[in-house]
Amino acid sequence: MSSQFLAPDAWLSSLEIETAVRRALTEDLGRAGDLTSVATVPDGTAAQADVVARAAGTIAGLPLVEATLRALAPDLKISPKARDGAEAAAGTILMSVAGDARAILGAERVALNFLGHLSGVATATAALVRRIAPWPARIVCTRKTLPGLRAFEKYAVRCGGGFNHRFGLDDAILIKDNHIAIAGGIAAALKRARDVAGHLVKIEIEVDTLDQLREVLSIGGADVVLLDNMDVPTLRCAVEMVGGRLLTEASGGITLETVAAIAATGVNCISSGWITHSAPQLDVALDIAA
C-alpha cells in the first residue's frame, strides 16, 4: 500500500487492507472469475479509466481502491488526483488507472463499494463537524460498525474531521446500564472497575438521569461520563454539575438538526453511531475512456 492516498495524520494497516480486499474479491469473483469480461474483452487488452466522484463529498477509501486494483494486476499504472480527507466537488477525478482491461473491470465493483461507503461515512462526519464548528466539542464514532469494516469506517470518520471512540471492548472500560444492573448498582460497578483497571485504562460510565450523575460524582473513580439520551436542558445541567471534573460525552438522538444545540451545552464529545452504520453512500464511478 502506498501512502499517497492516505489522509494526513491518519493511518491504516496494510494487513487490514489486504485481508479485506482479498475477502471482497473472493466473494465477487467466485470460482470462475469475471465471466463477462473474459467473454467480451480480448486477453491483453489495455484500458484507461478514471475514478470519479459523481456527487460532492468528503473522500475516504482510496487506499482500498488502489489495493483492489493491484490485487488483480500489480503492474497497473495508477495516478493519484486526490487523497483521502479531501473535499471533492461533483465530477472530480480522484484517480486515473491504465493497464490490463480485464483486471480493471474485475476490480471495479469491489473498489467502488469500498470507496462509496467510506466516503459516505466521511461525508456524514464532516457535515456534523461543520455544524459544531463554533464550539470545542468533538464528533466521535462508536462500535456500531459493519462487521469486518470497523478499522476502515473509523479511519473514514477521521477523514471527515471526527475522532475515534473505542475500537473494541479491549480499549477501555465503558460501564453501561446493563453492567450496572448486573453488578448491583453504580457504586458496585465502579468499585469493581477500579479494582481491575490497569493504570492506563480509562473508565467511562453511562448515566441516564441527573440523580445517577450525582451518585457517580459523589463516588468518584470515573474518568468520563456518558450522558445518554438527555434532552438539551438536562444536558446543560449535567455539564454544569460535572464542572470539568470529568470528560463529558453526549449520546443518543444526534442529528444534523440537533447537534449544534447539543454542542452548545459545553459537552466535550458527541458520539454518533449513525455516521458509521447508516451513512448514505457517496456516488462514485469508474469511467472507462472510449
Structure description:
The chain is of the alpha/beta class. The protein has two domains: 14-121 and 279-288, Quinolinate phosphoribosyl transferase, N-terminal domain (Aldehyde Oxidoreductase, domain 3, Alpha-Beta Complex), CATH 3.90.1170; 131-277, TIM Barrel, CATH 3.20.20.70. It contains eleven helices and twelve strands. Strands 6-11-10-9-8-7 form a six-stranded parallel beta sheet. Strand 9, helix 9 and strand 10 (247-251) form a beta-alpha-beta unit. Helix 1 (14-29) crosses helix 4. The longest helix is centred in the middle third of the chain and has 31 residues, at 101-131. The protein starts with 13 loop residues before the first helix and ends with a strand. The model has no long low-confidence stretch (mean pLDDT 96).
What topology does this entry show?
Blueprint lengths: L13 H16 L5 H6 L5 E8 L3 E2 L3 H11 L4 E4 L6 E2 L3 E9 H31 L6 E3 L9 H10 L13 E3 L1 H7 L2 H11 L6 E5 L2 H10 L4 E5 L3 H11 L4 E5 L7 H5 L5 E3 L2 H4 L6 E5 L2
Parallel strand pairs: 6-11, 7-8, 8-9, 9-10, 10-11
Antiparallel strand pairs: 1-5, 1-12, 2-4, 3-5
Helix pairs in contact: 1-3, 1-4, 3-4, 4-5, 8-9
